[in-house]
Amino acid sequence: MMFKIANKQILAKDVKRLDVKAPLIAARVLPGQFVMIITSEGGKWIPMAVAESEPMRGLITFIFQEVGPATIELGAMTIGEEIFSIIGPLGQPAVIEKSGVIVCLATGVGTAHILPICKALKKAGNKVIGIIGAKTKSSLTLEPQMRISCNRLLITTEDGTYERRGLASEMLKDILSTEVVRKVYTVGSVDMMQAVCRLTKDKSIKTYVQLQPAMSCGIGNCGSCRVRVEGKVVLACVSGPLFDGHNVNFEHYKTRLAAYRQNEIDPQQQEADEMTRSITKFFPGLLGK
Ligand code: FES
Question: What is the CATH number of the domain that holds 56?
C-alpha cells in the first residue's frame, strides 16, 4: 500500500504542507489523533499530526517543520512520489462537546495540531477563541484556516512584526479577564503549555495539553513515549497525546525530552529498526512493498 503525495506547499521557512492519498485513514481520523509514517524503506518511523482530512477525496494533510533527517527527507519529497508507509489513526481523539467559550492556543507548527480541534469544537456549537503565536511574521502558519475554524482569532509575534507583540500565553491572560472560559486546548513548547496551565489552574479551567515525546512505534510497544500523569507513568501514544495539563508532571516530561535529544542518533535508529519489525507484526500488510 503506497501513499501518493497529491499536493505540496511551502508555508514558511522549513515548514511544509503535504496532501497525501490515504483514503482509509481520511475516513476514520478524528481531531487529536495522529499517524506514524515512514518515508522510505529502512527509514525511521515518525509521528505526524493530521492537520486536515478530506474523506471524499481520500486525502490527509501533514504540516510539519523540518527538524531532523526524517522530516527533511519527507520535506524533500515531491508531488507524485509515494510515502513508504503510514499507519493510523492512532491515539485518543480530543473530547469534543458543547461547553461554551473555549480557547485553543498554539504556537509554531502546533497550529497544525490544534486546527482540527478548533473546527470540531466550533461545529459542536462552542464559541472558539483561537490564539496563535510565532517568533516572527514569516514563521506564522495557517492563519486563513484558523480564521475560518474559530469564532475569533488573535495573533501574537514575539518580535512584533505582525499583530500584537508578545507571547501567546500573555494573550490568554487578557482573554481570561474578559470571558468566562470553560476549557482550554494548547499545543506548543513545554514552557508555553506550563504557563497556560498556571493561568488556568487558579480559575479551575479544564486544560488539555498535547504532549509530543519521542515516539518510535505509536502503538504502545516500545515505551519511548512514557510520560508521568496523575503520578502514574502512561504511554502518550496510547493514552494521549492530549492530557489534562493540571495533572502532567512537566519536569519529568522535560527530562524525557532532553534525554531523547542527547541520544537521538544511534539509539533512535536501533529503535526504529526494532519498531519496524513490531509494526510489521501488529499490522501485517500495512507496510509498503
Ligand atoms: S511510541 Fe508509545 S510505546 Fe512506542
Answer: 2.40.30.10
Domain count for the chain:
3
Whether residue 103 lies inside any domain: the answer is yes
Among 46-60, 192-206, 257-271, whose mean pLDDT is lowest? Answer: 257-271
Q: Examine the fold and report which residue of 49, 66, 91 is the final residue of a domain before the chain moves on.
A: 91
CA distances from 216 to 36, 226, 236, 287 (A): 9, 11, 11, 15
Residue 56: which H helix or E strand, with range? none
pLDDT in tens, 39-48: 988 888 899 9
Please say if the pLDDT value at position 6 is more than 90. Answer: yes
106 and 188 Cβ atoms separated by less than 8 Å:
yes
Q: Cell numbers at residue 151, please?
A: 469564532
Longest dimension (CA), the chain: 56
Distance 217 CA to ligand 1 centre (A): 5
Alpha-carbon span 191 to 181, nearest angstrom: 21
Same domain for 80 and 111, yes or no, is no
275 belongs to a structural domain: no
| Ligand 1 pocket, mutate which of 38, 45, 225, 227 (most atoms under 8 A from CB) | 225
Residue 285 belongs to a domain: no
Ligand 1 atom with minimal separation from the 218 CA: 1
CA–CA gap between residue 133 and residue 104 (Å, rounded): 11
Same domain, 98 and 201: yes
Ligand 1 atom at minimum distance from 236 CA: 2
| Residue 30, φ and ψ in degrees, nearest 5 | -120, 160
Last residue of a domain, one of 33, 57, 91: 91
Please answer whether residues 112 and 142 qualify as being in contact, where contact means their C-beta atoms are separated by less than 8 angstroms. Answer: yes
- Give tens-digit pLDDT for 60-118: 999 998 988 889 999 999 999 999 999 999 999 999 999 999 999 999 889 999 999 99
What distance in angstroms lies between residue 221's CA and the mean position of ligand 1's atoms? 5
